[in-house]
Design brief:
The protein contains ten helices and six strands. Helix 2 links the parallel strand 1 and strand 2. 47% of the residues lie in helices and 11% in strands. The chain is α/β, with parallel strands linked by helices and 218 residues long. 19% of the residues are buried. The protein has a four-stranded parallel beta sheet with strand order 5-4-3-6, sandwiched between helices. Strands 1-2 form a two-stranded parallel sheet. The protein is globular.
Length: 218
């Protein structure tokens, strides 16, 4: 009833152009939600934005810039990783989305059994965070600062080794320049994860036999 009052007031004052709906992935996972949400949107005739605006389309752009194809999307090979860093994703609920892995939660247990670890960076203590070896709450919207600090440490401590990719990757020096100003101390003041933890995670990533970083891949 209260929602109806608020929406009606906006419509009266500003018209339908002032309203929009943003739906998430879970609409597609529920028969009731998909059926009745679709009916509501047809009747309401207002703008609709899906979850792809937040996760999929930025990933498409990044892949187009990196690989030349918006649909060449790299996914983490978690079945062969020893260090699994999860950022802003919750495969406990999404089952890995485009990762399409049979059981991500089961694989987290297997990573632990083979001597590896899973670290979750997320503002919320999600189901995935509860099953991980470590959970570090981050200030929402500051992932870029945290990642730049990781890259800063990797370059500063000589941990960047391209191996077989040497001479085949463009922009490495540019990334080094951008990350140079993002010390762990600077990032810590922004993202809420302390300096020692930032340094340790960077070193663990570099030192792992096989590491994977998994974020929102839509």
């Amino acid at each position: 009833m209260r929602c109806e009052e608020l929406i009606h007031g906006v419509l009266v004052r500003h018209g339908k152009g002032a309203l929009a709906v943003r739906s998430g992935n879970m609409v597609g996972r529920s028969f009731q939600l998909s059926r009745y949400f679709g009916a509501f949107m047809m009747g309401a005739r207002i703008a609709r934005y899906g979850s792809s605006v937040v996760d999929q389309q930025p990933k498409n752009l990044a892949c187009a810039l990196m690989y030349g194809d918006p649909w060449t999307i790299a996914v983490p090979d978690i079945a062969r990783t020893d260090y699994f860093l999860v950022m802003g994703a919750n495969p406990h609920a999404s089952q890995g989305s485009i990762l399409s892995f049979p059981t991500v939660m089961g694989e987290i247990e297997r990573i632990r059994e083979r001597g590896g670890k899973t670290v979750v960076i997320d503002p919320v203590n999600t189901g995935t965070a509860k099953r991980a070896d470590e959970w570090h709450p981050i200030v929402p919207g500051t992932d870029a600062a945290f990642l730049l600090a990781l890259v800063h440490v990797l370059f500063a401590e000589g941990l960047v080794k391209l191996g077989a990719l040497e001479g085949r990757v463009n922009g490495v020096n540019r990334v080094r320049e951008i990350a140079a100003g993002w010390t762990p101390a600077r990032a810590a003041a922004i993202c809420g994860i302390d300096v020692d933890t930032i340094r340790r995670i960077a070193r663990e990533l570099a030192g792992a036999k096989s590491a994977a970083i998994y974020g929102r891949i839509g």
